[in-house]
Write a structure and sequence with these properties.
single chain; alpha+beta; Cyclic Phosphodiesterase, Chain: A; 5-stranded antiparallel β-sheet; 4-stranded antiparallel β-sheet; 4 helices; 9 strands; 35% strand; disordered C terminus
């Protein structure tokens, strides 16, 4: 099964983003726009993972999540990979405690590695983002990046991580995502209780 670990913004944040992106979708129909079901911040892409390894992932991801507190985040600005002039991916950025978010991503990747599912992109620099659209061929999306540059969404506190399974779509249709596990961040640890 094809798996990844992610943080999902709350519905109110996604509502705001949807309102901002709706007119852009209409103006740029050649792009393959993503939608709410695919809007997430990937912490670790795991790729194809066998059933035995997937079973081990739960306890490892739970431990990773418990080591990190909730994170204040917001959606902010835009960019493109590899660059706006020859884009394959249009994205909106993530603002907040990015060092803590990167530390969480490292913990998730380490847990996946210990479970036997090393992320194939683990050596890449972590660049938190939410994918808005993909380009079939490299495209100049500089005007879109400029149109979204001033966008700043509402703040929220990321309180959990999700293990998500990606089911491929039919040709021309997007893949479908299914959450197969959720673990809270910063869960209380047992300790001595007052007498």
């Amino acid at each position: 099964m094809r798996l990844f670990v992610a943080i999902t913004p709350p519905p109110v944040v996604l509502d705001e983003l949807e309102a901002r992106v709706a007119a852009l979708r209409t103006a740029w129909p050649a792009l393959r726009w993503t939608g709410r079901p695919a809007w997430h911040v990937t912490l670790a892409f795991l790729g194809e993972v066998g059933e035995p390894t997937a079973g081990e992932l739960g306890s490892r991801l739970e431990r990773a999540a418990h080591r990190h507190p909730g994170l204040p985040l917001s959606i902010d600005g835009a960019g493109a990979f590899p660059a706006p002039g020859r884009a394959r991916v249009l994205w909106t950025g993530i603002r907040g405690d990015r060092p803590a978010l990167a530390a969480l991503a490292r913990s998730v990747a380490a847990g996946a590695r210990r479970a036997g599912a090393p992320p194939p992109d683990e050596d890449r620099r972590f660049r938190p983002h939410l994918t808005l659209a993909r380009c079939r061929e490299p495209a100049d999306v500089g005007r879109l990046v400029a149109a979204l540059a001033g966008y700043a969404g509402a703040s929220w506190t990321a309180a959990e991580i999700h293990l998500i399974r990606s089911h491929p779509g039919d040709p021309g249709s997007p893949s479908r995502h299914e959450t197969v596990g959720t673990w809270p961040l910063g869960a209380a640890r047992p300790g001595p209780h007052p007498a």
